[in-house]
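Quick illustration, no need to memorize.
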Amino acid sequence: MYYTYMLRCEDQSIYTGITTDLERRMKEHFEKDDKCAKYTRRHTAKKLECAWQSENRILASKLEYAIKHISKEEKEKLIQTHELGKINKIEEENYKLWKE
């Protein structure tokens, strides 16, 4: 199982990444662990906004790539609606919204 996630940073920017262990990865980002992303080391991660589960790395990476290539406005809308089908070339049925 893979997760594609979106984090809100203190400067209101949005970081997108993938992982196989969401809990571990959030700990790395929030605690600025040695393994956290360079981006979240400089733009302090504040909140997990949303995450989607997918069966494999290919699907998770495809979603990550698509999210990274939409505008900030579209990212904000995605966080509110969780509607992946509106992102170009993403088949929503391949993803399940993760809920705590």
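The CA atoms of residues 78 and 96 lie 14 Å apart.
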